[in-house]
């Protein structure tokens, strides 16, 4: 017997009197595929996708196994291959799917069988009820083919889909293999064929639903407790302490890796968190049970919650965290609004104070600030380019420097330095520089530090100093972040405040720009020669002595300077232009040298 000799007319037997239909000597019933589709939908909705998949694969396996045993016993087959090919023919005749065998190879106890399924009723019905899926969905067909081949070949065979029209492919393509040819795939799929009854599946689903319901009730109770804590005006630290105790896990609220609040249940968790933030890796996150949850409200990034524990979070723990996050988000957003209101008040009052530095008016609203106007203070200004993340930077600086006055005004973020930090601002400025570079490496920062101030009037001047310095170093060094101080630029501050700074830099480049480039290219010292000559009021002998040159050598250098710059050194106007350009050059050079120290 050959597979293509199977004919529908010879296999079907219909008895109109009794209303029975036999196919291949087995009684069958004509059932609409729409009804099978509804059954499939109800199974998935009741059991879930994975359990319904296993149920339908086992159903298909039993169907295919029965057909295989029946067809094997009924006919005398020419060879094993014909018996294998009879399965696709029988499946097609039963109206389930059009099967087109492609490749069949039998070698001893190994079987490799591939082919195509077209017009799969399973794919059509699944798409109708659920739409396209990301994975193959012809579960009854793969079960049938696995059961048929296993019963006729005598060895366990697993069939799976390489392509499936249920996930958008133009056709379904199947592959069947014995265990020895693909053990991993075999072991992965065999778990679906465990003989669990529908009652077992429903019982398991019932227990899961009951467990979920219990978790919801417990998480609701925890949320109620957290809500009451919030209404009692408990702060964020108490909230996360309570959640950490419920979960028995460490919890950190951080913002750009800077801890806002934390509760570590042991030192090991603290070390794990620090190591993870310093050198983040997905492997470490999985090994140490680290989970992160963003905290956002009204399109504002408030930070994130980091949960540290040895084990992966259970569904119950995730539900508790979700409820806790809703309360924490409200707490943090409320605090954010208060902070921004305070920043705005500081900004507005600072504007008034600059326009009218009245000590009595300051006293009325001194609660807004932490500094005292009659003590030693300085203004530090941060200009950011681009300025799209100024709000995040302001929040980071405010958190990193608690107790200091941090606020924004226009294009600048301002910090008032007091006491020792005002006396020697280098360390504070460098700390701010590194903090910003570490957390916002793509941005450029121009940090200006104003003069010392021991009164509101001088503090207003210190503010103007700091902002003008930030603008100046932004223009002078647009490609790199910088710090500069009033003490280094005092000799040109009047020019910076009273002149268009861009024009000032263009003037310097016009007068001695070519000379600077010549020195760089030829490693000469014409700029030093020019400065010494101007410092000695054009006295050749004093300049030659200062530079350890002969008069002739000095004359040669001065002629070369005039030729390169096209400006007369002998005229008063020429000397004044050179003197001004030299001052601007050395102001910029100070910034360059300081940049190297930071690096």
Automatic annotation (TrEMBL):
Alphabetical list of SMART domains matching this protein: V4R
Membrane-traversing stretches: none
Superkingdom: Bacteria
Domain annotation 4-vinyl reductase 4VR: ranges: 116-178
Pfam families linked to this entry: GGDEF_2, HTH_30, V4R, XylR_N
UniProt-listed InterPro entries: CdaR-like_regulators (IPR051448), CdaR_GGDEF (IPR041522), NO_sig/Golgi_transp_ligand-bd (IPR024096), PucR_C-HTH_dom (IPR025736), PucR_C-HTH_sf (IPR042070), V4R (IPR004096), XylR_N (IPR010523)
Family per similarity comment: Belongs to the CdaR family.
Name of the protein: V4R domain-containing protein
């Amino acid at each position: 017997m050959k597979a293509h000799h199977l004919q529908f007319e010879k296999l079907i037997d219909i008895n109109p009197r009794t209303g029975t239909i036999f196919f291949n000597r087995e009684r069958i019933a004509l059932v609409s595929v729409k009804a099978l589709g509804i059954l499939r939908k109800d199974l998935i909705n009741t059991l879930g996708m994975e359990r319904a998949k296993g149920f339908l694969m086992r159903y298909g396996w039993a169907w295919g196994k029965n057909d295989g045993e029946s067809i094997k016993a009924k006919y005398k087959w020419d060879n094993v291959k014909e018996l294998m090919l009879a399965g696709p023919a029988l499946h097609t005749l039963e109206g389930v799917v059009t099967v087109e065998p492609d490749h069949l190879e039998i070698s001893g106890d190994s079987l490799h069988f591939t082919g195509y399924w077209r017009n799969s009723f399973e794919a059509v019905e699944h798409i109708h009820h659920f739409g396209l899926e990301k994975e193959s969905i012809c579960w009854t067909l793969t079960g049938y083919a696995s059961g048929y081949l296993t019963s006729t070949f005598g060895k366990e065979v697993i069939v799976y889909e390489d392509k499936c029209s249920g996930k958008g492919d133009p056709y379904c393509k199947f592959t069947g293999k014995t265990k020895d040819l693909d053990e991993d795939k075999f072991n992965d799929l065999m778990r679906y064929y465990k003989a669990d009854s529908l009652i077992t599946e429903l019982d398991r689903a019932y227990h899961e639903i009951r467990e979920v319901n219990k978790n919801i009730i417990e998480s609701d109770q925890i949320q109620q407790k957290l809500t009451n804590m919030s209404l009692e005006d408990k702060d964020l630290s108490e909230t996360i302490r309570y959640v950490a105790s419920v979960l028995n896990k460490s919890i950190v609220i951080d913002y750009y890796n800077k801890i806002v609040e934390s509760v570590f249940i042991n030192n090991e968790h603290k070390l794990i968190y620090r190591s993870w933030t310093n050198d983040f890796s997905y492997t470490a996150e999985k090994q140490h049970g680290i989970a992160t949850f963003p905290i956002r409200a009204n399109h504002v990034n408030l930070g994130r919650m980091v949960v540290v524990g040895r084990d992966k979070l259970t569904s119950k723990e995730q539900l508790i965290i979700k409820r806790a996050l809703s309360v924490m988000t409200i707490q943090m957003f409320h605090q954010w609004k208060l902070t921004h209101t305070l920043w705005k008040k500081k900004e507005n009052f600072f504007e008034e104070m600059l326009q009218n530095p009245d000590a009595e008016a300051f006293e009325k609203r001194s609660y807004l600030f932490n500094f005292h106007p009659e003590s030693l203070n300085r203004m530090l200004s941060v200009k950011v380019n681009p300025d799209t993340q100024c709000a995040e930077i302001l929040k980071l600086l405010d958190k990193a420097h608690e107790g200091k006055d941090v606020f924004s005004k226009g294009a600048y973020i301002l910090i008032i330095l007091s006491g020792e930090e005002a006396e020697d601002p280098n360390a504070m400025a460098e700390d701010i520089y590194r903090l910003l570079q570490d957390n916002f490496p793509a941005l450029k920062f121009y940090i200006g530090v104003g003069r010392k101030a021991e009164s509101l009037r001088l503090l207003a001047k210190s503010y103007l100093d700091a902002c003008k310095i930030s603008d100046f170093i932004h223009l002078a060094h647009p490609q790199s972040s910088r710090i500069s101080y009033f003490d280094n630029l005092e000799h040109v501050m009047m020019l910076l405040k009273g002149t268009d700074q861009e024009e000032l830099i263009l003037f310097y480049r016009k007068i001695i720009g070519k000379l600077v480039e010549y020195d760089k290219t030829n490693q000469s010292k014409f700029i030093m020669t020019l400065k010494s000559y101007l410092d000695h009021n054009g006295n050749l002998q004093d300049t030659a002595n200062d530079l350890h040159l002969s008069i002739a050598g000095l004359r040669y250098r001065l002629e070369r300077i005039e030729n390169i710059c096209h400006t007369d050194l002998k005229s008063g106007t020429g000397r004044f232009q050179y003197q001004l350009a030299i001052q601007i050059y050395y102001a910029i050079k100070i910034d360059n040298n300081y940049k190297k120290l930071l690096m």
